[in-house]
Amino acid sequence: MAEITHHIPDHVLAAYATGSLSEPYALVVATHLSMCLECRANYEAHQMLGGAVLEMASTEALSGDLKTGVMAMLDTPVVPQPAHSRSGIYPGPVMAALKGRPPRWKSLGLGVRQCILTGNSEGSVRLLYIPPGQAVPDHGHNGLELTLVLQGSFVDETGRFDVGDAEVADQDLEHTPVAEAGPPCICLAATDAPLRFNAFVPRLLQPIFRI
Amino acid sequence: LHALSQETLWMLAVRDTRDKVAFAALFDHFAPRLKGFIMRSGTGSGQAEEIVQDVMLTVWRKSAMFDPQRAQVSGWIYQIARNRQIDVIRKENRPVPEELHADQATEPDAQQMLGLEQEACKLKTAIGRLKPDQREMIEKAYLGELTHQEIKSQTGLPLGTIKSRIRLGLEKLRHELKDMRSDG
Ligand SMILES: [Zn+2]
Ligand SMILES: [Zn+2]
């Protein structure tokens, strides 16, 4: 398997580590960090800097019974929350977003499918399934778009993206990702565009269908 | 000449022998700082203490995940605290990466642990030498007060050699990451 060549940019990693990245992007970053040694090291370096800031934080006096309460709870048995582990091509964070179930694909036409994981007015994150040779439906972005390949590969104007590779696109990038020959390309894609994507795709596909 | 820090030794005692005296020492060191840190981003005293309690209990319960070849106690606790704060305040379940488990068969590398401690010291010195406004910017960023666009315009976070040191620690887990990528 090829090495990962397209990584999460440092400012996005820093935003993730400091908790200032919204949930859709955070899911893509957490998934890449589950696949990429290099970004994992950079992420853990940001944690270390966060730790230094915590060490330097001014202290606040605690309520008298806080420590006693915590010490008393140490032996309380806890049922550990089930951690979602990787399943096939889907790393743990994706399985957590899928609540442990396989994706429920919705057809967008021409063999392209999607499965929306979360979405609100601030952004959305979805799985996309693109058959070989097929293009990702047209999808202008208003802001940041983060796409991570989980299976297969795609190419666009900026390069070639293989399993584990992340593409960062902003509003200036006009691109048409096309799935390469081989297994269908499955990507995790987060945008700040609301769920409109869902509605306007069939209309954009109309010229191809010659409806 | 160089020794592991007191915090690391306490944390290892908690992890390896479930030492409550060591945990109490960690609590005394970190809980007041955590409360100050959490309150700085606008959380009230009562809710801040609830978060401190959750964080310290997580430190106890998840101590097996602490790996001194890759992390300092303060950095490990920082991430637990930020995750918990976000879950509580934004009422969302923050996506987190898969946990990486140290290979039981490999002996802990003392050299690597000490190297990381040294890097941590250098990092603190570097932050201490920053101009006040630069230092405040770093504090703001790690308190979660900057947007990702604002972070983008900030340059020169002093992370250079730490990345390669942590990477060395991660190399020991590399085969696991390889498995994670190739079993698809
Ligand atoms: Zn990477
Ligand atoms: Zn795009």
Averaged pLDDT of chain B: 85
H and E order of chain B: HHHHHHHHH
User: How many runs of DSSP E, i.e. beta strands of chain A?
Assistant: 9
Radius of gyration of chain B: 17 Å
Query: Which secondary-structure class do the elements of chain B indicate?
Result: mainly alpha
Full CATH superfamily name of chain B: RNA polymerase sigma factor, region 2, helix turn helix motif
Q: Unreliable runs of chain A, pLDDT <50, ≥5 residues?
A: 195-211
How many domains of chain B? The number is 1
User: Going across the major beta sheet of chain A, what is the strand order?
Assistant: 1-2-3-9-4-7
CATH topology of the domain at 103-209 in chain A: Jelly Rolls
Shape estimate of chain B: globular
Succession of helices and strands of chain A: HHHHHEEEEEEEEEH
Task: Using the coordinates above, name the CATH class of the domain at 103-209 in chain A.
Answer: Mainly Beta
Pfam families (chain A): Cupin_7
Domain ChrR-like cupin (chain A): 104-189
Protein name (chain A): Anti-ECFsigma factor, ChrR
InterPro entries (chain A): Anti-sigma_ChrR, Anti_sigma_zinc_sf, ChrR-like_cupin_dom, RmlC-like_jellyroll, RmlC_Cupin_sf
